[in-house]
């Protein structure tokens, strides 16, 4: 009887040099855009909060100011949009 030689190749072999190593999922530009988006979201939250109103009185002009009802949501949504752009940018 003849013997058959079986060769098994290891598919998970270690990379032979540095150029075969895995690349990161995102690049530096993507991370900078993500940080910028997070800063915009935090800025929008800060714009929406705050105020010097006394808790015992109701000041309609301060509660429903255009800074809180218009500007802050626009800043937050632009930050979220920047985050989405940073994730999908290749």
Structure description:
The longest helix has 23 residues, at 66-88. Helix 1 packs antiparallel against helix 3 (66-88). It contains 3 helices and no strands. The chain has 90 residues and is mainly α.
How would you briefly describe this protein structure?
The protein is mainly alpha-helical and 90 residues long. It has helices at residues 28-48, 60-63, 66-88.
Report the C-alpha radius of gyration, rounded: 27 Å
The structure class reads mainly alpha
Describe the global form. Answer: rod-shaped
Q: What is the element string, with H for helices and E for strands?
A: HHH
Low-confidence stretches: none
Average of the residue pLDDT scores: 86
Share of residues in strands: under 5%
Number of helices: 3
Q: What's the main sheet like?
A: none
Q: What's the multimeric state?
A: single chain
End-to-end CA span: 59 Å
Tell me the helix content.
40-55%
Give a count of the beta strands, DSSP E runs of length 2 or more: 0
Summary tags:
single chain, 90 residues, mainly alpha, rod-shaped
Write the SSE topology.
Layout: H1 28-48, H2 60-63, H3 66-88
Helix pairs in contact: 1-3
């Amino acid at each position: 009887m003849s013997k058959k030689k079986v060769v098994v190749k290891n598919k998970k072999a270690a990379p032979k040099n540095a150029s075969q190593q895995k690349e990161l999922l995102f690049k530096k530009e993507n991370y900078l855009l993500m940080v910028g988006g997070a800063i915009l979201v935090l800025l929008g939250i800060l714009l929406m909060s705050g105020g010097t109103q006394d808790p015992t009185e109701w000041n309609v002009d301060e509660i429903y100011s255009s800074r809180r009802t218009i500007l802050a949501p626009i800043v937050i949504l632009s930050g979220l949009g920047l985050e989405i752009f940073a994730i999908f940018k290749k």
